[in-house]
Design brief:
The structure holds 3 protein chains of 3 kinds. By secondary structure, chain B is mainly α. Chain B is about 70% helix and about 5% strand. Chain C is built from 12 helices and 15 strands. The chains are: A mainly alpha, B mainly alpha, C alpha/beta.
Chain lengths: ~350, ~300, ~375
């Protein structure tokens, strides 16, 4: 009973967000809260690699892209075939949402496979070199995605296009436009809640402890019998899984477009900044920083061209004043207790 | 034959720009072990300082005929400008983080980079329009080899780049400052105990690296006179490739940065000319991954064995 | 405890009322709020600021002549940094927080699509000044544009190349990371093939590239009759300079992305004699053009580019529709915009067609003495 309680809580929380919070705060803040959820999901997942395991990955947006495009192909082309609708239409009722949930999950799994593939070089490389390989992976992904064909917009054209054409018709540099708007507060916060719970439980588990030991001293932890290779690959796969799911949510959110130009290394850096600012290894810290870094720029909207200057200056100042991030290695309730 | 020769020339020209920028990345990495992401912005400022300085003298006006010494003035002016700026950035944003984890310095560097780009875009700074860099270096067709014209400006750009690299080589291997730099790079703590003024050496490194980036900026603007606005993708892309060059050559290694720059330039240009121009950037990153998988510390880098 | 709950409930109720939208824009008597989203910073800032200047000039004129039924127009502008995610967010904000009655925005098609899908979802009309990709107005019945589309522009350049220049073999050099460039390349290729010409090669570059020597050398070896470069002027200057350095003298052709006074400044001698299609030529003698160019120069001190002209036209067409519309609700206003016919804009006589695109002629201009000069006007087929 105790074991399922947190999961029920996450489900209840997500339902509450959808039913009670959304209608009260209005469309704009609903969108911001979805953005926050996706940012938290990305930060918490990257934290498993960067924070727990101490491997420096700056290709997280690449995994997000893999998941987003996979889920997008499934809902756009797959959805059209499955529900016999024009491409991009939202399938009515619960069926559409279940298909969306499945698509996101498949996107996550495909991203996880990519995570293992990219994680393998980490057997040989450490520190900054690994970071650079992940960056290279992300950039190659980006260029290849800009080379894809135009999205097939009409049902007639779609009827004659074989699936091999469909999977490469993801819009190229224009972005994968026209995806149905499935993402809502429920799905966003359900996945985010699951990720937070999994990450926290992981940190307290034996695998998580092994990850922390790899972060502290890889050689010593290997000597103590930790299978460092396995641990690193698991970390990469889990982080990529959730990043892929985040990509799926992002792809189907109102007002966002899967655009290769915006899923490059700069997006990855945004996520790294969240992890570092929250405190490496702190699950709640990453979530907190992701929330702040998503909401603060919104509040600075009125400043127009000075907005990014303020943001950049804040970044430098925070690093100077709190080099360990907001929470350090601790979780939010520890910080509470201490002060 | 014509085409091979032309492609070779272009490869060297592009590669030498990468090499000059890569030197700044590699010097800072060699000493402080962190990737200075603001370096591509220093390079951008080098180009824009050159343009502004030429503007001060009125050489950017239509019909102006800059004197022969104009290039020297602008080059040295831009180099000293960025050297001071590089020094200041290190002093304010990086030095207080000397003992913090390197990733924090990295984030601070990203902050500095965003700050430079967004301030540079303001109307009171450089604005958002691209500008035309006046031709300060003399240009003429020197001679022709089987249909390929070798131009003076291209030769000068490559020549100045190589000259600066030689000067740096001398600085690092032939002077006391260079000796101190190498000492700090090998082991900062021991160097400090031996009486090497670490802080001053680090400051000097930033100043020299930034000055080289400014030189690269000037040469770049001379070769490609349409200089884009400060936040344009050009600068980020060039910076990224130069960084890749530094890593491929073996980051922290000065000669490696030069070799890496030329190699990346060649791969990119030959790939674009003979395979497909569509995947120009893919070649660069694919080469990077390939090199790191075969030689994890880069071509000329020395692999460090972790001692327990 | 009890009082606490009551206060929380009061807050919740207040928030709910705010969200439910108590301020109905159409019945208020204050200024009419119009939203604008554009790239004021970031890589695309060059384009966003020109458009913004054009819009502001038009709004000033409209307000100086009495506004809409005595109510002035007020523009709320947000920066989207040239990112689709920001574009979607700021349009959501404009529509659901600021409650604007209509939206003007974006140059880049990918950004117009991101914003446009939100505007369509909430039923607020949007006019894109200068997004030429076909997909923009295909979003739905609330999305309009005042520029021509890529298919037409591609046709114009192809026809000019074959008929006026007698070119048969044309090489293309395009920016593969820009949807605009890729779309225009495709449409040009289709049109040219239809007219009996051939595209001998499609070379590409990435946004941010500055060295085009490898691509140009490859093109030179094919000795085409002309080179079509559907890119932005920020790149074209460097491309022209390098092409001339390589000894290439064939005519260069371009699209509306070339239009800026900076093109001649950067390209210099190398760009002389090149042709591009555009929305208008500043030297045209039509009164609308002369009035606009004079007013723009007085206010901003530079010759307006095509983007500024389109921003200006977009704002004027919106104001014109507002005057004709019975009220300012989304459906009524959208209907009024759709009914726009023969509007005397700077960029030609504008009629909104059933696909919500502007049907109007394009001009071909040639760079002569550092200025774009009119060569031909080509009407839709």
């Amino acid at each position: 009973m105790r074991a399922i309680l947190p999961w029920v809580a996450v489900l209840g929380f997500a339902m509450l967000a959808q039913v009670a919070v959304g209608p009260v705060v209005g469309h704009y803040w609903t969108k911001i809260l979805m953005d926050v959820g996706i940012a938290v999901l990305l930060a918490v997942s990257l934290n498993i690699v960067n924070g727990f395991t101490g491997q420096f990955s700056i290709g997280h947006a690449g995994f997000m892209a893999v998941g987003g495009y996979t889920a997008g192909i499934l809902t756009y082309y797959g959805g059209a075939a499955l529900f016999d609708l024009p491409p991009g239409a939202v399938a009515p009722g619960i069926a559409g949402h279940l298909w969306f949930a499945l698509s996101t999950l498949v996107g996550g799994v495909v991203a996880a496979v990519a995570g293992v593939v990219v994680g393998l070089p980490s057997l040989r490389l450490r520190g900054d070199y690994l970071a650079i390989v992940t960056l290279g992976f992300g950039e190659i992904m980006r260029v290849l995605l800009t080379r894809t064909e135009d999205v097939i917009g009409s049902a007639e054209e779609l009827a004659t296009a074989p699936w091999t054409t469909q999977v490469v018709s993801t819009g190229g540099s224009l972005g994968f436009t026209g995806l149905p708007f499935y993402t809502n507060l429920f799905w966003t916060w359900l996945w985010t809640g699951i990720a937070i719970l999994v990450a926290y439980r992981l940190k307290e588990s034996s695998t998580g402890r092994a990850m922390l030991s790899v972060r502290e001293d890889e050689v010593a932890s290997g000597a103590m019998g930790v299978r460092t290779t396995d641990v690193k690959v698991i970390a990469f796969a889990m982080a990529a899984l959730f990043a892929g799911i985040a990509g799926g949510l992002f792809a189907h959110e109102i007002g966002t477009t899967l655009n290769p130009a915006e899923l490059g290394f700069q997006k990855s850096f945004e996520i790294v900044i969240m992890v570092v600012l929250g405190g490496m290894g702190s699950v709640t810290g990453a979530a907190l920083a992701a929330t702040i870094l998503t909401i603060v720029p919104e509040l600075l909207r009125e400043f127009s061209e000075y907005r990014m200057i303020v943001y950049a200056a804040l970044l430098v100042v925070v690093m100077l004043v709190r080099p360990t991030g907001l929470l350090g290695h601790r979780e939010i309730w520890h910080a509470w207790r201490r002060s | 034959m014509t085409r091979v020769l032309q492609t070779l020339m272009d490869g060297v020209a592009v590669g030498s720009t990468y090499a000059l920028i890569a030197l700044g990345y590699t010097m800072v990495y060699g000493i402080l072990r962190f990737i200075n992401f603001a370096h591509s912005d220093i390079f951008m400022l080098g180009a824009w300082f050159s343009f502004s300085l030429a503007g001060v003298f009125g050489w950017t006006l239509a019909g102006a005929t800059p004197p022969p010494w104009a290039a020297v003035v602008v080059l040295l002016g831009a180099m000293s400008g960025t050297a001071v700026l590089g020094y200041a950035i290190e002093r304010v944003a990086y030095r207080p983080l000397r003992s913090a984890p390197r990733i924090n310095v990295l984030i601070a560097a990203i902050g500095v980079s965003l700050l430079i780009e967004n301030i540079g875009q303001l109307p009171i700074a450089f604005g958002t329009q691209p500008q035309r860099m006046p031709s300060l270096l003399p240009d003429a067709v020197l001679f022709e080899v089987s249909g390929v014209s070798i131009r003076l400006v291209d030769t000068l750009v490559i020549g100045i780049a190589l000259g600066l690299m030689a000067a740096l080589e001398w600085l690092i291997y032939g002077t006391r400052l260079g000796l101190a730099m190498r000492a700090v790079s090998t082991d900062a703590q021991t160097a400090a105990l031996m009486g090497v003024p670490v802080d001053r050496v680090v400051s000097a490194t930033f100043a020299v690296g930034s000055a080289l980036a400014a030189a690269a900026g000037f040469l770049y603007a001379s070769k490609y006179p349409g200089i884009n606005q400060p936040a344009h993708a050009t600068w980020i892309l060039l910076g990224l490739k130069a960084f890749v060059a530094a890593v491929v050559g073996g980051i922290g290694n000065v000669r490696g940065a030069m070799a890496g720059g030329l190699l990346i330039g060649m791969v990119e240009i030959f790939g674009a000319a003979y395979l497909s121009p569509h995947l120009r950037d893919v070649y660069v990153f694919a080469l990077l991954i390939l090199v790191l998988l075969v030689r994890p510390a880069g071509l000329l880098g020395r692999a460090t064995v972790e001692k327990v | 405890m009890h009082g606490m709950t009551r206060r929380t409930m009061a807050w919740a109720a207040a928030l709910f009322l705010m969200a439910a939208g108590c301020g109905d824009a159409s019945t208020a008597q204050g200024p009419i709020l119009v939203g604008e989203f554009g790239s004021l910073t970031g890589s695309e800032a060059t384009f966003g600021q020109s458009t913004h200047n054009g819009i502001m000039l038009a709004i000033d004129e409209i307000n100086a002549s009495g506004g809409i039924a005595g109510r002035p127009l007020e523009v709320k502008t947000y920066d989207d940094e040239g990112k689709t995610q920001q574009a979607g967010t700021v349009v959501t904000r404009l529509v659901t927080q600021d409650k604007v009655v209509a939206i003007l925005g974006e140059v880049a098609s990918s950004l117009s699509i991101a914003g446009g899908r939100v505007a369509q979802q909430y039923g607020v009309p949007m006019i894109s000044p200068s997004s030429t990709n076909a997909a923009v107005t295909e979003i739905g019945d609330k999305i309009f544009r005042v520029c021509f589309i890529d298919a037409f522009q591609g046709y114009v350049v192809a026809r000019f190349a074959t008929e006026n220049l007698g070119a048969r073999k044309v090489a293309v050099l395009y920016d593969q990371s820009a949807a605009y460039s890729k779309g225009l390349k495709d449409d040009f290729g289709k049109a040219l093939t239809g007219m009996g010409g051939t595209v001998v090669t499609e070379a590409a570059y990435e946004k941010g590239a500055s060295d085009f020597s490898a691509q140009l050398t490859a093109i030179r070896d094919l000795s085409p009759d002309a080179i079509f470069i559907p890119g932005y002027y920020t790149d074209v200057g460097n491309i022209a300079l390098q092409a001339r350095k390589l000894g290439m003298t064939v005519p260069l052709l371009g699209g509306d992305g070339w239009d800026s006074s900076k093109l001649a400044e950067i390209g210099g001698e190398a760009i002389e004699g090149a042709y591009y299609s555009n929305h208008y030529a500043p030297e045209e003698t039509r009164p609308a053009v002369q009035k606009f160019v004079t007013a723009y120069q007085a206010k901003f001190g530079s010759v307006p580019d095509g983007l500024a002209a389109l921003g200006y036209d977009a704002a004027h067409i919106l104001a014109d529709a507002m005057k004709r519309s019975p009220d300012l609700s989304g459906p009524a206003l959208a209907q009024a915009i759709a009914a726009t016919k023969d509007f005397p804009g700077v960029t030609g006589s504008i009629t909104i067609d059933p696909q919500r695109n502007a049907s109007k002629p394009a001009v071909m201009v040639q760079m002569k003495g550092g200025r774009p000069t009119w060569v031909a006007t080509i009407s839709p087929p």
